[in-house]
Amino acid sequence: MTDLSATTDVTDRPSGAAESGVQDRIRDYLDRTAPETPCLVVDLAAVRRNYQALRSALPDARICYAVKANPAPEVVATLAALGSSFDVASPGEIDLCLAQGASPESISYGNTIKKPRDIARAHRLGVRLFVTDSEADLLNIAESAPGSQVFCRVLVDNKGSRTPFGRKFGCTPQTAVRLLRRAAELGLDPYGVSFHIGSQQLDPSAWEHGIRAAREVFDGLAEHGVTPRMVNLGGGLPASYTESAPPLGDYAEHIERALDRHFGARRPELLIEPGRQVVGDAGVLRTEVVLVTASAGDDRRWVYLDVGRYNGLAETEGEAITYRLRTSRDGDECGPVVLAGPTCDGDDVLYQHTRYDLPLTLRGGDRVDLLSAGAYTASYSSVCFNGIAPLPTHCIDGDELA
Amino acid sequence: MTDLSATTDVTDRPSGAAESGVQDRIRDYLDRTAPETPCLVVDLAAVRRNYQALRSALPDARICYAVKANPAPEVVATLAALGSSFDVASPGEIDLCLAQGASPESISYGNTIKKPRDIARAHRLGVRLFVTDSEADLLNIAESAPGSQVFCRVLVDNKGSRTPFGRKFGCTPQTAVRLLRRAAELGLDPYGVSFHIGSQQLDPSAWEHGIRAAREVFDGLAEHGVTPRMVNLGGGLPASYTESAPPLGDYAEHIERALDRHFGARRPELLIEPGRQVVGDAGVLRTEVVLVTASAGDDRRWVYLDVGRYNGLAETEGEAITYRLRTSRDGDECGPVVLAGPTCDGDDVLYQHTRYDLPLTLRGGDRVDLLSAGAYTASYSSVCFNGIAPLPTHCIDGDELA
């Protein structure tokens, strides 16, 4: 059992005082407006700041926001206004981006699994950049999006990630060489290589694996006279949960060093696909305690919240993501709890292995805020499981409030 | 690895020829109307037949359909018209039932986790039957739904269940005695005891544990002059997935025998809360193959469907529920596959440990039907994860079609 105090001071976190300010601003908004719970509040000023921080840390990389992390239209519009590009997973996300002011040229179709008619629809809408990792998909792209840029996803080690990807995506560097050569033969532009070192990656040196693999593919292609130009660094940059993550600068430094090592002066164009890093720390999820009960089994109280696995906290599966908490009773003496969601589902338990301590005075009706909950929450909500409505999102703009 | 052929003959399943007829009727509908995939089709005639089969098997039990299994309005209306009662998890499900013709007296508020204002709302709407398993909740019921009937959920062994409940719900028989005594003191009606032996329970003798625990509570209460009258047998009756389940009659027989053993001639009133048994075998989920690729790692092909963990197949988590499949290439030679969903999420893999064999000729655009998919699918769908729309449900009435 990891000893994590839910009342840990947040000021020692990566984004430090700035993030703390976001949390306070959102709390003020919540306290003032007292919306129905549960709800997610996202501060668009924080989204802008996180985007700019990455822009400064990796000035040469084209930022493709991973829309799936938080597809709130206001978030997409805010990023489009800053000139961000977008990593999308489906035609639904393409429509969303275009509706919020993104240009088709700013869109990267980043899902290796696509129907031919979805590729054709993307192409019709002006999208010209597609990922692939299999011959079947490549043939579909050549047929339905002729002449487009393609990049090939290679499978790399996900160690250090809180939510690794397994073997679903990516191919070997050898296969990538074969596929990108084939792409050229098919009249596509063999633009480059992508990889993903796993989401919420806590080890900044992990990118080394992917950059080395990309170099391997570049070399393999050079032997055949094919010249790719781009390396897509994928996602993986962290948000601030209970386990501390290194500061953004450390990630940038490791990435720059690996690029120097493997590409030297022949730097490729760079893409990066942040999701959590942009929107995670920009959100707070407010919940209400439904019930606090004594357990039959051990000395831990059970605290049931009005949010759970099926209306926003999908990433608590396997206790992979451990959110920091703030309660309306902070300061009172604390004791260990099991945290659970509101449905009649036995799997709707958030934390029973990870240690959380909450105030002994906590009772039904009290507030519990989950900090840094802006990514991968609302978009996972079920439509109506147990008759419970999906998690709503409120967007505020801290700069306008200030 | 369990050796399960995805093309297993379905006629040896519990509901045999009847269920097979349902699948054929739904296939005819799907082939004729060719709706956008993925989609779930539910045959209301099969829902009626499954309900009547349970009514015949356990004629003394009041059937409370577990709405969470499939909250399609047509399903609820069909069951309300047959005189079914309803097990609901939230105010949202109460509203749904009332709107579809259920009376407030037919509703059992079966979630131990409820806000006081939700209890009050249910009471205002006429609901008079509530579950509990903690003092905090009991006090809320006494305050917000005075005079109501309450039953206390005890925790029993979930062995044999494909999706056991863990320790989230239920208390010890000793605590149940204490709570029901307290209920009487608080002016509530200490109506009885409930238990849940785990969903998709493949062992019909499992109910024995719960019925014995209920008897223990009845005896404990009798010592204090309190006389409960009801035993709620909970859910757990199976649908027909790849692992065969015993026929419904076996379940009824075991339940009757356990009731005789523990209650003899002093039979309590009975409630039962079926979900899967009513609606599971009444549904077919039609999907389209997006892509078939060779794997880098082993000899299994990867088959990507347009449905996955986040748009309908939540119960493939941990490969707990293994659906039977039917493809548009059945009859062709088969080989092993990994089955995965359409999102950019590494956890969106349906089956990689359970062995599935599918036709070697299978390719993008082909149809794959998931049989007996009527329960716990559409209601779990995410609102828009990866920009993918929730799973739609089409209801047909096989009796009207015939």
TrEMBL record, chains A, B:
Gene3D superfamilies: Alanine racemase, Lyase, Ornithine Decarboxylase, Chain A, domain 1
Highest taxon, organism lineage: Bacteria
Domain Orn/DAP/Arg decarboxylase 2 N-terminal intervals: 45-279
Record keywords: Decarboxylase, Lyase, Pyridoxal phosphate
PANTHER family: ARGININE/DIAMINOPIMELATE/ORNITHINE DECARBOXYLASE (PTHR11482), ORNITHINE DECARBOXYLASE 1-RELATED (PTHR11482:SF6)
UniProt record, GO biological process: putrescine biosynthetic process from arginine, via ornithine
UniProt-annotated catalytic positions: 344 (proton donor)
Recorded family membership: Belongs to the Orn/Lys/Arg decarboxylase class-II family.
Top EC class for this record: lyase
Full protein name: ornithine decarboxylase
UniProt keyword Transport present: no
InterPro entries given in the database record: Ala_racemase/Decarboxylase_C, De-COase2_N, De-COase2_pyr-phos_BS, Orn/DAP/Arg_de-COase, Orn_de-COase, PLP-binding_barrel
GO molecular function, a single term: ornithine decarboxylase activity
PROSITE patterns in the record: ODR_DC_2_1
UniProt pathway: Amine and polyamine biosynthesis; putrescine biosynthesis via L-ornithine pathway; putrescine from L-ornithine: step 1/1
Record's GO cellular component terms: cytoplasm
Organism: Saccharopolyspora erythraea (strain ATCC 11635 / DSM 40517 / JCM 4748 / NBRC 13426 / NCIMB 8594 / NRRL 2338)
Reactions performed catalytically: L-ornithine + H(+) = putrescine + CO2
Annotated Pfam families: Orn_Arg_deC_N
Modified sites of kind N6-(pyridoxal phosphate)lysine: 68
